[in-house]
Design a protein that fits this description.
Structural class: alpha+beta
Number of strands: 28
Oligomer: single chain
Strand content: 25-35%
Radius of gyration: 36 Å
Shape: extended
Distance between the termini: 79 Å
Helix content: 10-25%
Largest sheet: 5 strands, mixed
Length: about 575
Amino acid sequence: MSDVRPLAGKGDVEIFNAVRSATSPQFQTRIPAATQGNIRQAVDNLRNFPYLRDEFTGVLIQRLIGLYVQHADWDDPLKLIGSPRTMKRYGSTYEQAAVGLIEARTRNFNKEYLGDDVYGRYAAPTASVFHPLTFDHYYPVTIPEDALLTAFDGETGMSDYIAEIMNAPILSDRNDVYTMKVQCFAEYARKGGFWRVKTPDVGSADSTEADAKKLLRQIQETANTLKSLPMSAMGRYNAMSWVTPWRDSEAILFATPQVIAALNVEALAAAFNIDRANVPYRIIPIPEDMFGIGGTNGKVQAVLTTEDFFFQWDEMLETTNSPVNPIDGTRNIFFKHRGSITPNPFANAVLFWTGDASSTEVTLPDTLTTTTPTFQLRLKKYGETAVTPQNVSRGDLVQVVSTISSANKDQAAFQPTGIKYTLEGATSQFTTVDNDGIIRCGLDETAESLKVTAQATYINPATPEIDQTITAALDIPVVGTWVGGFRLGAIEGLSIEGADSVKATKSTNLTALAVKSDGNTQDVTALVAWSVDANATIEPNGKLTGTTTGTANVTVKFAGVTATKKITVAANS
């Protein structure tokens, strides 16, 4: 869409001709350019050629994004904050890299600088994060094609008509983008960001003038501190603990409407050393409940950060359309927006709230504790009650059931937000555990037991912004028959039967026998894993072929048991 000239504010004649210029040569031959006097006739000519009409309306719809994105009724207050990075057309992630500081070295004029000093490699410290796609939205709207053509009246009927139609999807997209940006505050907190400053609640009904003055002083003091610190001291103010410089010219204060009202515009302007007229561009109201931070631990007053707090990139932003419905003559327009909106972990950010400051120890109410919750694993077969312990049969599957609880779970909110499973001890490539905790045991599994470990992520009331983890493990007995009808422990040994020698280029057949616990043997030639170290080759059925003279050591493995046989490869004379 970047090559399409925006048509915003244009009359119908100009819009018609701009669309015509993007059509095929056949279209332009049959449909002449429009003028103020003949535009109605030009539109009527389109009605006589359905295939040309379809081409025209298709091109017109493709240009809608350039025409109406800038003319919706509601303007996103965060539109200019975190403006989208370069449009990406390939890949599903955007790598954000940052370069750190280089340690200074002192020149020594008495030293001879040679070798690595001159030609060595000096890598600058770097850090990077990946921002994946976070949304893939489309907004459909149906328009009658005939009404679309009828809107051409020679003046601005087309602009007015399409603006009315497209207003809803454009506004919907802007609303969703705004909501996703606001959600970044809570996500940044969960990543361990925000330097926290304890403040009075100036937005409450019983707050005093002294409370407002204290908060204002804290904001001003913090802003002055940030712009006076060297880069090397900035790590405490961002989620990456990185040396991100503070750019005072890009500073933004996000505050609740109650806080802004309590502090007054003049005082806020003074805090940033800016004119009153510029305050709206530097101080943006965000409803308290939309910050998603605090809860019972504190009440948000404001967030001081910079313009790069929101990391946004667009992979797709376009308008497409369906073919004309032959029954009712309508088209569906799809306004599509795919990209990513995430918090920038390198961005410095300070949270002003009524909760505990970062510099003090977190103290919980007596009703809450930070005791690690109890994590329990159980197993169940489908349709049966979960029990522990339980076994799993070879060739079968079971479901791992995980629970996490705490004695004070009602107050402490020890609730799992995600569980990851891992499996240890498996010998079969077919024995696995998936993300849902379903364990599949291979028929050829030789392990006597499997160990499944579950790692749960939960919220600790002492540090609600940072996820905590706890693990629990369960040993699962493995039972049942496996390959060859053998049971675990039923084999006491293996033997290789056959000739002790073979001539080069000639072959001989070997047999593998399993020695059972009752003394009997069973042919397992087709079940064992055959290998030979040198001077010969061997096939899965035990057929050995000599290649060069020497000694060939043949090995078989089965059910955890190994046997070897030395065979002489003689010259083929």
